[in-house]
Amino acid sequence: MSIVTKTGDSGSTALMYNRRVPKSHPQVEAYGAVDELNAALGLARATATDDFIRNHLLAIQKDLVILMGELATAAEDLPRYQKDGYSLVTPDLTAKLEVLVKEIEAQKITYQGWATPGGTLNSAALDVARTTWPPRRTPRLRPPGLRPASKPRNHHLPQPPLRPPLAFCPMGRKRRIAEALTTAD
After folding, report:
1. Is the pLDDT confidence value at 144 over 50?
2. What is the CATH number of the domain that holds 137?
3. Please, what is the Cα angle at 55 between 94 and 82, to 5 degrees?
């Protein structure tokens, strides 16, 4: 699939398997928001000096690609999507993130000091990723009263919090402080 479609701008875009939807369609908004988060995490990973941070951010990014693929596929095409070898979001995928969150939160980190982002280039990149967290932004983007009438496809999965866990900014403030101290002259 090429990123150059040559289909012009009729106000619509294609999901997987060429199903046309308006560019304002909730699925397009959703996978676009996840793509923004993935890009922000890529910047954070590129600026990280700690292997723990880089490795976990890369794993999260790979999981986000799975999520974006599912979001970019119409519900009626999901069986074909899976048959073609693509993965769907599963409870195991979200459980991995929950284990990471618990590991980081076990460090007894706090929210104190989060008002001023940018202690280091990497902490600033992590703060950008934190504010790009789609469930945090989506309520502000959705017009009042516009809610899905039915349960989302993955209603069996844990719902992400509207405020990202401190650990989502993967590694939290203590690790970012430690990283800044080790890179300071």
Report:
1. no
2. 1.20.1200.10
3. 45
